[in-house]
Design goal:
Elements lengths: L2 H26 L3 H26 L3 H30 L1
């Protein structure tokens, strides 16, 4: 089994199933924090899918896109944590 077979037949199906499960958690999350964590995890899984696609197509420019998405996801999580901290102080 080559690396490409491993990526096609094992990694991509696992990532696809995890995206489906995370999306269900995103829809069913009872609290706002659950939904934000699920959204962050969706972005992280998307970064993994982009990385696998970059390896399969042998185009490293997609890794730049994955790094930008990782930065956006990190900044979104930090902004949400800041929002929760301010909200708790106001209550």
């Amino acid at each position: 089994m080559s690396t490409y077979d491993y990526l096609y037949y094992i990694i991509l199906p696992v990532l696809s199933i995890s995206v489906f499960i995370i999306f269900i958690r995103f829809l069913m999350g009872p609290r706002l924090s659950d939904r934000v964590v699920a959204l962050d995890l969706l972005l992280t899984t998307g970064i993994g899918i982009i990385a696998v696609y970059s390896i399969i197509t042998n185009q490293p420019t997609f890794l730049d896109i994955a790094m930008i998405l990782a930065l956006i996801a990190f900044l979104g999580t930090v902004a949400f944590a800041y929002y929760l901290e301010k909200r708790e102080k106001n209550d």
